[in-house]
Amino acid sequence: MATDLGELLVPYMPTIRVPKTGDRVFKSECAFSFDSPESEGGLYVCMNTFLGFGREHVERHYRKTGQSVYMHLKRHVKEKATGAAGGAIPRRRNGKVFLDLELNRDFNGEDYEYEDEAKLVIFPDHFEIPLPNIEELPALVTIACDAVLNASSPYKKQEPESWDEEIQVSRHARSLRQLDNGVKIPPSGWKCQRCEMRENLWLNLTDGAIFCGKWFFDGTGVTEEEAVLDPHISEHLSHFGIDMLQMQQRTENGHHIDNNPRPRVSEWEVIQESGMKLKAVYGPGYTGIKNLGNTCYMGSVLQVLFSIPDFQRMYVGNLQRIFDYSPLDPTQDFATQMAKLGHGLLSGQYSKPPMKSELIEQVMKEEYKQQQKGVSPRMLKSLVSRGHPEFSSNRQQDAHELFIHLINIVERNSGGSENPSDVFRFLVEDRVQCCQTRRVRYTQRVDYCIQLPAPIEAATNREELLAYEAKRKEAEDNMRPLPEPVRARIPFTACLQAFTEPENVPDFWSSALQAKSAGVKTSRFASFPEYLVVQIKKFTFGVDWVPKKLDMAIDVPDFLDLSRLRATGLQAGEEELPDLMPPIVLPEDTRDNSMTPEIDEAAAMQLAEMGFPLEACRKAVYYTGNMGPEMAFNWIIAHMEEPDFAEPLTLPSMLDPSLSTSDSPMGATPLDNSPPEESVSILTSMGFPRAHSIRALKNTNNNLERALDWIFTHPEEGEESDALSDMADTEPNDNAFSNANSHSDSTLSPDRDATGPRVKDGPGRYELFAFISHMGASTMSGHYICHIKKEGRWVIYNDHKVCLSERPPKDLGYIYFYRRLSSS
């Protein structure tokens, strides 16, 4: 038999590899679906690429690559028989097979037991070889199989302190020696004993000292730098007068039980609709997203995006085409991973109601087990967070920042094809006026979200807020318990009014005066998007530079009419500011006729810390227009193989007479270097012709933000035919501006339509269909959930749990999503 197996595997031996350092082995999840070893068909791991595939996708990989040998992994999970000893270690039949397989966290090890099996499968005949089979298999195959079975998680290799690791128990928990120094901690009025800081405080469980982060983490005596668990925390706190057991008795479901006749319900309870018997819903569009540990911000944003038809059509409607044309490593392809997640959310395959027999059994046992498991965004998170210092961490993040980050990735990956983020894009008209000469300048810019201020001074309960602040200050000064907090109630109209009011322009340079002067700016909508995203600016920075959330409720309307905020352009009687730029200040030493480039040195250093040459990092930052380390990182990856990759940045002479000055708005000569392809792609993805985008970048020293302004202020008059040809080549069937031209108050002129960004302009009347809420004191902590209106009813998406909403807390939202009402 050994000879037979050896001979059988001889033709495939060149394709079987042993995982090396740096190879990622995907043995927990399919690259195209959420199938795993626990799925009915198990998981197939390619013995050459080490990618995992479900039963319905492994044939595609075999046909595309010709790879024939796969390892089939299957986990059999079953509930323990009645009478089994509680707390026993789950039994494994093949303990070594899945040595480092990530367990499904929905299963409680005390309630379930499982058996693992593995075998080699040879395609296309599906010949199976059970494992382990050390004596009968060639040595190379045995070593390769053992290495695959014992490989660690591919995500742990990328993130050593990843979000899927469990917090460990402190080594000092049992042996902690507490001083009997008579220290008792009061219920309020805490402050740092050295600097009197009242925020970001830490309690030393040895002596009861309270310090802020600055003094607590001074580099001395720290033996555990990560978060740890203290199973004896209640005992350790009671030593200093903090009785957790008594506190638990005084609370019920998060509500304080005291003599206050009107206890304030916490935002956690209101937003999550705690205390209500919410009905779980199942099926297509009602699939939850697992929280991988502080990833609720991502789950909430993705749920909303995939409730929009344009994203559904782009990624789920084109599923088979995306999968068939995916690269050899689909785990690194954005379109593939978006299609995978979209199908998981919308197919209903991972959101099936429990069987009637299961429900009856639960009723008989007087217990209820959560049936909703949701899908895991692990592969997509790893991809979109790569190279990002915050999203790649295990910390909580801002959902609004992630939304913008995802839109940027969608833009970059759309190219000239269908771009679902077009539905969010709109034009903002900024009107800047010189206060001294009263002359004005109108410019337009692209945006995807409107950020509304929340003016506390406009609160309808202002007197109540002032009284609370006085009581709170008095309680802190006298070390007494704080009064019940009061939440500010702000009208939505006040937020809109604050948005439309003029704001001062810092360091305004008046081209009329040829000097700095006072200037004010107002903003209006030059176009209205198909889907309007509204962010309430609830977060601010405290004195310790930690973002904090303002406690407020805003009466956000279900229907919104912004027609009065449409831009009007230059009005009769207004005089424009001259089209001049501030003078360029050259370096003192211009003997070599060179100009010092503007480079974000902080971003360059951040990339250099990753191990890239510093000069290469400076070039990457410069050629991506100082748009941040993420874009610079992509430039580095694309140019690593170039021979001058690590050479210092060199620019053409600024005063080179061979450079043309005809395109310069003020006669200054731009640098005649070819714009980076990444910047050109970003502009073309917004709908601008390629030639016009290159010209704009050349005239603005490859600065993306300035290039956008240049495009809006320099329509292609002389090359209109070329621009139209470009539009026809890159954007077939595009009628994005047809609606814009139908509005008499639109500022887009006919010759600018051909070169403007793709916007889906229309009426400014909207209906609320989704909102994302945040619970917690700052963006660095807390929890995100979202509510989405589907089929005429509000649905709450709280990680993997999906239920019908009984009382959607629309007044406590953070990001609101509106869709345009039809004109009929």
UniProtKB/TrEMBL annotation:
Binding sites annotated in the UniProt record for Zn(2+): C192, C195, C212
Domain USP: 287-821
Basic and acidic residues composition bias: residue spans: 750-760
EC number: 3.4.19.12
Acidic residues: bias regions: 718-732
UniProt GO MF annotations: cysteine-type deubiquitinase activity; zinc ion binding
Residue ranges annotated for the UBP-type domain, each copy included: 168-272
Repeat keyword on record: yes
Family: Belongs to the peptidase C19 family.
Protein name: Ubiquitin carboxyl-terminal hydrolase
